[in-house]
Amino acid sequence: MGNSKAPTLPQDQINHTQLNKRIWSLSGPMMLSNISLPLLGLVDTAVMGHLDSAVYLAAVSVGAMILHFIFWGFGFLRMSTVGLAAQAYGENNGYELRQLLTRAGILALTISLLLIASQYYLIEWALLLVQPSTAVAELTQEYFYIRIWSAPATLLTYVLLGWFLGIQKARLVLYVMVFVNVLNIALDLLFVVGFGLTVTGVAFASLISEYAGLILAMFLIYKETMHLKGKGSWFSDLEWGSFRRLLSLNFDIFIRTITLLFVFAFFTTQSARAGDVVMAANAVLLQFLTFMAYVLDAYAHAAEAMVGEALGHKNKQRLIQTVNACMKWSLGSALIFMLFYLVAGEYLLALLTDIEEVKIFGEQYLYWLAVMPLIAVWGYLFDGVFVGATWSREMRNVMLISVFLVYLPVWAISQSLQNHGLWLAMMLFLAARGGLMAWHYQKKLISIKFDTDGRM
After folding, report:
1. pTM for this structure?
2. How many CA atoms are closer than 13 Å to the CA of 62, on its beta-carbon side?
3. Domain boundaries in the chain?
């Protein structure tokens, strides 16, 4: 790969200091890029929240939720690209890295065009499920019909950011994410506060910033691919067979992602049926999980890139050392979160809501939040390991088992516990997911053997 390839660790000896530095060179920028996401949400809420009617804020919230669900359902475009790019990077295969961009880009464009073509059906189905008021529904449609045109930019950016992470250029991911979110915030203020636009102003701000981010990412891609070795044009390997592995990976991860989204949608639906106070308290408490995910996901992203590289480099020792090092950092951070939630849980709850009834109710569930980091950490970590190793079938199966044989049955038999039963189901789901992935990882380690030709 020429100059674009970062120094790698020697095959026969692994320097633990260098290994930890590499983990932080990947996880640090990803933490910062993750933290930039809620800032955008806060600005959207603030500019809408200061208008003369609550329907604007409600419409943007509902529209953003619908689009997040739709777009992130195709988050497999990022995850599959990371794993395949990391393995090609480990093999020093510049040709495959170029072909991967082409294949994944074609798939992302195809999906985005199908989303745009079916936009009227998508919003009708979504509003039928959410059932907002008539005024909110009309404004949500305005927002959606503008934002859906960002589908090509959003899905292509998933591919490009996954490719950057696969070649261990996490700083480029940070640059793109911060650029998009800062531009989005600036355009929010310009269109809504400056020009007096409402829902359409927020929608156009997001649309413009997402295409601007795509242009920046494509420019950075051009600079990186200039150094790639390997003969052949960008479109020299577009036979059906070349797409088969990508499509298989993507389908498995798609099922896994949709199932995971179902877990949180089901949790929210059951919370809503229990009443406004329960729904509000659970929504606030879930922010503890989201906040923790910004940190733990960063280690998972590092694992994605480094595990894929180790497998591409045909080095089982490096694979084990990488996973162990990421595990130590993840577990250490989870312990810090556990102590933080134990000591400051009530203060965090008060910071997130000043509604006394919600605070009093939420305080009854803080012990769930205290144990959650140590339960959830394993699922986050092994998600990164499995993405980097492209063990997508195992990811899919673990998620299906955890949801349909653990989460839903536990919820069904714990109805007498009311909201505690819902949290019990969530915690056992997280435990099953992490435990099953750890078991699969150990099985995979036993089966991984590289022969003298470097093949598994």
Report:
1. 0.85
2. 27
3. 32-238, 249-449
